[in-house]
């Protein structure tokens, strides 16, 4: 019983940290979309943010953001597309963590916490170590930095050279 409780506490801690990081990313994307579509009228910005941007799924926000960057900042897209595509991996990991059941099998309960925490729907319960969680957090932080760069590009639009 004590092993199960320690495992649950560790999972809550790791899951919470990562989900919080992704929540910030999702909000940052909402802000970028609001800034892009509502540049001047503050009441329209508030309405758009509350009724449109915040109501979209992370998947839809990501799709819109990528279309904006591709269309308005093609050189930036070419430089950063691999990293912006990492949002897909972050999103998948986040969804699995948010909706997955903790592996509390006998094997998982006997495994030292340093060897990781398993989530049933993520790689069939293969334990995720603290180091792996840290890598996910680093990737999320780098993505946040990239989103800040995109926000700085607004409202400018790259001119196409013909």
Explain this structure to me?
The protein has 162 residues and is an all-alpha fold. The model has no long low-confidence stretch (mean pLDDT 90). 72% of the residues lie in helices and 0% in strands. It is elongated, with a radius of gyration of 19 Å. It has helices at residues 2-37, 42-51, 58-72, 74-99, 106-110, 130-153. It has six helices and no strands. Helix 1 packs across helix 3 and helix 1 packs antiparallel against helix 4. The protein has one domain.
SSE blueprint and pairings:
Blueprint: H1 2-37, H2 42-51, H3 58-72, H4 74-99, H5 106-110, H6 130-153
Helix pairs in contact: 1-2, 1-3, 1-4, 1-6, 3-4, 4-6
Quaternary state of this entry equals single chain
DSSP helical segment count: 6
Q: Using only CA atoms, what is the Rg?
A: 19 Å
What low-confidence regions span 5 or more consecutive residues with pLDDT below 50?
none
What would the average pLDDT be, to the nearest integer?
A: 90
What structural category characterises the helix and strand content?
Answer: mainly alpha
Q: What fraction strand?
A: under 5%
Number of domains: 1
Shape descriptor reads: elongated
- Element order: H for helix, E for strand: HHHHHH
Largest sheet: none
Task: Report how far apart the termini are.
Answer: 69 Å
Give helix % range: over 70%
Strand tally: 0
């Amino acid at each position: 019983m004590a092993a199960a409780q320690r495992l649950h506490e560790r999972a809550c801690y790791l899951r919470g940290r990562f989900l919080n990081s992704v929540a910030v990313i999702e909000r940052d994307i909402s802000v970028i979309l609001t800034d892009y579509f509502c540049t001047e009228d503050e009441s329209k910005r508030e309405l758009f943010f509350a009724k449109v941007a915040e109501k979209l799924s992370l998947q839809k926000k990501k799709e819109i953001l990528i279309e904006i960057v591709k269309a308005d900042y093609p050189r930036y897209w070419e430089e950063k597309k691999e990293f912006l595509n990492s949002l897909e991996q972050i999103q998948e990991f986040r969804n699995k963590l948010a909706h997955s059941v903790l592996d509390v099998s006998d094997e998982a309960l006997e495994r030292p916490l340093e060897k990781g925490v398993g989530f049933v729907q993520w790689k069939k319960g293969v334990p995720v170590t603290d180091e792996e969680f840290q890598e996910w957090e680093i990737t999320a932080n780098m993505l946040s930095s990239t989103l800040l760069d995109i926000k700085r590009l607004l409202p400018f639009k790259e001119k196409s050279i013909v």
